[in-house]
Design goal:
Layout (H helix, E strand, L loop, with lengths): L4 H5 L16 H16 L8 E2 L1 H9 L5 H15 L5 E2 L18 H6 L6 H23 L4 H8 L3 H10 L2 E3 L6 E3 L15 H9 L13
Parallel strand pairs: 1-2
Antiparallel strand pairs: 3-4
């Protein structure tokens, strides 16, 4: 193998954080895998099971040493063994292993990953990462109750909503979990109002009532 092969192929490297570093993605991925494998392994029309809040908390607190593939396998196992329409509980998940310290908890390791950045850029990135992870943990702990989350954090709800808006987070419409904010659709945008001068110009070209050819009556 050519020694320079890696450098010839390496054009745009993309660093994807480990699953344990982005717990806000876990409920979305779990729901997606559950629906995918349920359709694959069960008869058509079988009622879908549902992940309970306790099960989602267990998933979000798991270290996921096997990353997304481990989550995928855990959910596929559930889709095979649970009854149609069942509520999936933590004991149904077959999770193994103990929670591990959060990434970056070792100061030396954290600093080594930021050496290529300026002080201000590194500081802003660390603060943003902390705020995003803290908000996810906070709202999940409060089961989506923003008043309760604000009391736990010792801030008012306005501050909490502002921080979530800043980081593109929102509560799931179907559960009390934090998810990525979806971009506004065209249907949600304000209706376009035709400019007044365009309306006036159009009206000036219309024939008066009772004069089909436009001549005065």
């Amino acid at each position: 193998m050519r020694e320079d092969l890696y450098y010839r192929l390496r054009v745009v490297p993309i660093n994807v954080p480990a699953l344990r570093e982005r717990p806000e993605d876990i409920p979305l991925l779990a729901d997606y895998f559950l629906s995918t494998y349920w359709v694959r392994h069960r008869r058509k029309g079988a009622p879908f099971p549902r992940l309970t809040d306790a099960a989602l908390r267990a998933l979000c607190g798991h270290p996921w040493r096997g990353n997304v593939r481990e989550l995928q396998n855990v959910i596929e196992h559930v889709a095979v063994v649970v009854e149609p329409g069942a509520e999936i509980r933590p004991e149904d998940l077959q999770l193994t292993g103990e929670p591990t310290p959060a990434a970056g908890s070792n100061p030396a390791s954290l600093i080594s990953t930021l050496l290529e950045e300026s002080y201000h850029a590194a500081r802003d990135r660390v603060i943003a990462q902390f705020e995003r992870q803290y908000l996810t943990w906070l709202v999940n702990r409060a089961s989506g109750n923003m008043s309760k989350a604000a009391r736990i954090a010792g801030v008012d709800r306005t501050t909490l909503y502002r921080l979530m808006e800043r980081h593109g987070l929102q509560r799931s419409p179907t559960a009390g979990w934090v998810v990525e904010r979806e971009p506004a659709s065209a249907a949600d945008a304000s209706e376009q109002v035709e400019p007044m001068d365009a309306v006036t110009a159009d009206a000036s070209h219309k024939a008066p009532a009772g004069a089909p050819d436009g001549r005065p009556v």
